[in-house]
Amino acid sequence: MGLDKCEQCYEHQALNRNVFNYVKWKHRAEKSRQYLIMATIFMVASLSGVLLFVLLISGVIRVPQTDNSTSKVSIIKEEFGITREGVKIDRYTLRSIANASIEIQVLTLGCTITSIKVPDDKGQVDDIILGFDDLIGYERTDNPYLGAVLGRVANRINKGTFKLNNQIYHLPINDGDNHLNGGHSGWNKAVWNATVVEDQLTFSYISDDGDENFPGEIHANVTFRLTKEDELIIRFTAEIREKMSPINMAIQPFFNLAGEGSDSIYNHEVTIFADYYLPTKLDLLPTEIYTDQPAIHFYTANSLDIKHGKSGHDYGKHSGFSMVPQNYPDAINHDTFPDSVLYPGSTYIHTSWYKFTTAD
Ligand SMILES: *[C@@H]1O[C@H](CO)[C@@H](O)[C@H](O)[C@H]1NC(C)=O
Ligand SMILES: *[C@@H]1O[C@H](CO)[C@@H](O)[C@H](O)[C@H]1NC(C)=O
Ligand SMILES: *[C@@H]1O[C@H](CO)[C@@H](O)[C@H](O)[C@H]1NC(C)=O
Fold it and tell me: Which residues cross the membrane (predicted)?
């Protein structure tokens, strides 16, 4: 669909009957870039590991082919700033050496993707990620999770309430009457430990039992890998101790394929290969629907209103888009939605592939 008549675009959850979600974005003005996202989301690996295996064997899924050889990517660390609480934040830059056309920067604050630089069809390199120039920007109270990891549970939980193991939990209410993206201090506000192993950058975080009223201690990792085919692979994993908890990890970069700060996304085209979409009510909670597979949250930045982003750019309505693979919103309160519970002894795994190309 074209996005010129974007007034009708809203927040929707694209659902896929298959395990694979596949989305293609294209900027179709003179400067042309394409962006593809392919995502698999597995709520509980002990179950889905078997499912993935079966699907791979049966040829239903084709995992993108990537070259596993190492040292084709350079990963550089530098200090980005000091938080209001006095914690040092580092920025990591991943750059493809073999094909030095793509560069990605990520912070230890909330695993935030601050920039992705890619060339267009004329070789002009632009930063296609909305964000801020400095840490003060990312710490702003009006920062709408730009580029950040979302957890423990991305998206909304109705009235911030759920029942698990015969216990009722009340979470912080931070979005109207509901709980959104992990609460007042979600994982986007956490400072993650970074480890570089060959071409992989892994961020780790321990979310304590009782963190934002969620049960159980969760050990979470987010791994970034850039391949020489210009794919960014982001892998989320998590394990829990003793108790069980809902989980739904995601990351929310806002893109503008014409370059951040360009007027709008009206010259973009999007194709979403989904079997269904999940209608939501005004408060963006879903109406009841039955299906048993994962989703992609599609948002055309209808209520974005950021003054003084990068280089002083203002980011208004429709100045970017986000495409966030995840489980269904409020899955913990809907028996017919895919299970969002992380159990002790199992591993949560979610992998997304982002591929950047130029249009024909
Ligand atoms: C460099 O990137 C271009 C565009 O994605 C691709 O066609 C080409 O194969 C890449 N070159 C190498 C050496 O990987
Ligand atoms: C992060 O590093 C600190 C200090 O070295 C350590 O205490 C903590 O356990 C680490 N957290 C994770 C998740 O590795
Ligand atoms: C996170 O990564 C560390 C190594 O960096 C590994 O020891 C640990 O098992 C990983 N945890 C999960 C939940 O993947």
Answer: 35-61
Pocket test residue of 234, 235, 237, 346 for ligand 3, highest count of atoms within 8 A of CB: 237
Residue nearest atom 8 of ligand 3, based on CA coordinates: 221
Mutate to test the pocket of ligand 2, among 204, 207, 237 (most ligand atoms within 8 A of CB): 204
Which residue, by CA, sits nearest to atom 3 of ligand 2?
Answer: 193
Residue 331 scores a pLDDT above 60: yes
Q: What is the DSSP string of 130-146?
A: ---SSHHHHT-TT---T
Q: List the domains of the chain with CATH numbers.
A: 22-261+340-357 (2.70.98.10)
- What's the pLDDT tens digit per position in 192-204? 999 999 889 999 9
151-183 in b/e form (b: 16+ CB < 10 A) is bbbbbbbbbbebebeeeebebebbbeebbbbbb
99 pLDDT more than 90: no
